[in-house]
Structure formats: structure tokens, C-alpha cells
Amino acid sequence: MVIGNYTYRIKIWILGLSMCALQAVAQKTASNPLIHADVPDMAIIRVDSTYYMSSTTMHMSPGVPIMKSKDLTNWKLIGYAYDRLVENDAMNLENGEQTYGRGSWASSLRFHKGIYYLSTFSATSGKTHIYTTSDIENGPWEKHEFAPSYHDHTLFFEDGKIYMIWGAGELSIVELKDDLSGVKENTQQVLIKNATKPIGASIILPAEGSQLFKHNGKFYLFNIAWPRNGMRTVIIHRADQITGPYEGRIALQDKGVAQGGLIDTPSGDWFSYLFQDSGAVGRIPYLVPVKWENDWPVLGVDGKVPDNLDLPANGSLIPGIVNSDDFEREVGDPSLPLVWQFNHNPDNSLWSVSELPGYLRLKAGRIDTLFLQAKNTLTQRSIGPESSGTIKIDVANMKSGDFAGLAILQKKYGLIGVTCDGDQKAIFMSKNDEDGGLLSKIELNQDTVYFKIECDFKNRTDKAYFYYSLDGKKWESFGEVLQMQYTLPHFMGYRFGLFNYATENIGGYVDFDYFRITDTRSSTTN
What we know:
The chain is mainly beta. The chain contains 2 helices and 39 strands. The longest helix is centred in the first third of the chain and has 26 residues, at about 1-25. It starts with a helix and ends with a strand.
């Protein structure tokens, strides 16, 4: 009996060691998706042992976020290429104009002879924009711009020349002037007549999203295409000269993971960075391992996107990509941390973190009838697979016709907050109604109130739930569940937003005490 019990204990001990070993391996291993948040159109470079990544945030200001990593899996926002893309009615939300889903799109990021180059393009400005700096982490960035707007271009330096490749289906190449002020005359030519050819003629999306790389003397051009009745697909073209001729082939068809390029580690391992359309949370980054065979990069593991990667484990996206904010500022602190972006260009006279220290004050400076047309909605990403945003707000100084509170922002948005009718305030919830119709409303008889939105992105459930509290402890479900939907008119994942706008009188304001974002799956907050 003793021997049997001893043997049983030994087996349990061995099993325990095995489980611990498996857990230890799991903790040291990165997993896909790399970032469960809207970080599309990535461009990644490595400078010595540090990686830098740019991405797309379109109509948000500031724009073209820059992120940094030391291990390729854990990323932190370090800056933006520009504070304001352009001054026009669309970007400024003036005269009924807007630029949802436009702004600036896919960027190209390069490092050449000690200078960082970040280029993007915009239908809103009608131009190609190139930003340069010798210090990517601190700036400043110098702006160069010219017409036209080159769609989904890639910037490349070769033999003392500056090239740009762009297009959709038919891809073209041109040389740029040395001062980046425009293109050289008589240098434009068609590079690949039909870059979509490897997937056939029946397509939803022609080859675009160009990113060019050079390895062992050969050039590799990455593109995405989408066959009808198929999925987003990686196409790679290869050439001995930058100007071609190019031969192409399908490089990856799995899970719709596509569009991106190549990156190597200091130890010589190779990966392809790509992204997946993942419903309401947005377009989320993946990494796949790459091996070189017969001078071709071979993506994935047996042609598949792996769940795990031989890289350090991904940590929480808090605080590197999103973060809570109590709006307390010390001397020398930025007014707003990098996790925040305004919806379109803000009016900087109508927000402050200094007028009432420890609070974000949003003022209503004009009359707006639509939430999506309102200025100074301050946003940051939601994160998957589950997350929540919570605010505490003082509404004592609202005026009749004002609306303020917490949003989950996309074209099919949801709002929860406070509205004012004469001297009476009320808690309201609204969704999917660009005319400002209210779905639920109850009287509010105090000046401080709490709101929370919980987002469930698991398996593309894509539901948002709305709550209020009068004391910050007891929460009441309110209004209706929002079925979130990723829509092309906005072309980005849902974002939490702090808002205040007037429909009758200007001059009212609200004070946000804090915003707290939580990864509800792991209960991580900051």
C-alpha cells in the first residue's frame, strides 16, 4: 500500500513537472495574432537590433503611428509621422465635409544612410507625402509632398536612385527627385502589366499593397490579391533588376492572412509580417516564419499560418499600444500620451488638461447635429479578444442640447452618456443612428456619473454592451446590445471615444476624470 501510494505520488510529481515544462514553453513562445488590435498595412524595418513599424490610422490625428520593438513581438508606440496631414474641410470636419476611411493609407518605411524615410499617400490631400528624420524616436520629421497620390506605393533606394513602385493590378515604377519634391521626368514605366495573374482572372481585389525587398542580389515584390470565391492571398514577384522583368507566384493562402513583407532577426531568422481582416476589432497583425528555397521566400509552416512562433511571448497591449489615463500631468509630460488620437483634426482651443488639473476638459464650440460630424472626439483602439473602456465624467457645466460621454466608434457606432434638456440631465444610450435618435433614456440628478462599454470580439462575436453607475461600484446594464460591424466607409476597427458636442448652444463643457481600458480576458488594466 505504501509502495503503491509512493508510486502514485511519483507519477503525479512527474506529471506536474511535465505540465510546468509545457507552461514554461508556452510562456516563452509568441502566438498569433501578433497584436489583437487594429494595426493594418504594417511596414517593418530593423536597424541593428531594434525594429520599427509604421501602420495606418487614416482619418485620425496625429497620423501614421510609429512603434518600436526589441523582440519583434512586443511593441510600443513611440510617435507619429505627422500631427496634421492637411488643412481642408474634410480633414477638419468643416462645412459638412469628412474624410472617414480616407486620410492617409498604407505607408512605406525605410532607413538609408542614417536617415529614416516614411512615405504615405492620401486621397484627402491628393498628394504623396514623404517624411524624413535622423531620429525616428524623437523627431522632428521634415515633410515633403507632391502630386499625384501614388496608391499603395513602396519606396526603395538602389544604385544612388530613389524609386517608387505603386498601383493595383498594373504596377508602375518611377524615379523621384533627390530632394523628394516630385518625380523625375520621363522615368515612369509599367513594371508588371498584370501582377494579379498568379491567382487567375476571376478576382475581387487586384494585386496591390506593394512592398519591395532585396536579398542576395534579387528583388522581391510583395502584393496582396483576392480571388473570387477565395481568400486574401500573398503574391510575390522576383527579378534580378529592380526594373524587371519579374516572375510571380502565389506565396501564401491561409486564413486570409496577407499584405506585408519581410523582416529578418539579428540571428538570421526570417519572418513575413502580414495581417488578417478580423471583423469589428479591425485588421490585426500576424507573423509567419520564412525559409529560403531556390532563391524564393517560402512562407508559413507547410503553407499554413502557425499559432505559435519561436519568438519571445507577446505581452499585454497595455500600456504599449493602448493605455488608461487619469489625466494627471507632471511638468514636462505631454498633454496627451501617444495612445490617444483625435477623430479628424481637432480644434485645439476646445480641449485642455490644464484648465482643471487632473481632468480632460472638452468644450462645445459649435453646433453639430450628428455625432460623426462632431469635433474633438478623442479616441484610442479597442483590443481583442475582449476589452472594456470606462470613464468618470463631471457634467455640471453642460448646456441644453449637449451630448457627452463614451463612444464605441465606427460607422455603426454606439454611445452612452449624458444629454441635457433645459435644466434636466438624463443618461442616454444610442446606436446605429446617425440622426442622433435615442434608444434609452433615464433622468440623472447628480453631476458625476460613470460609464462603461464592454466589447466581445471572440470568434468575431462583435458585440458591445453598455453600462452606467452612479457610484463607480454598482453597474447597471443600459440600452441595447450593439452588433458591431466593420464597414468600409470608416475602414478601421472600433475605437473607444470620449465625446462632447452641442446641438443648441455653444459654451458648455464636461470634465473627464479618467479613462480606463481593460483587457477583460486577462483582467489587465493600468
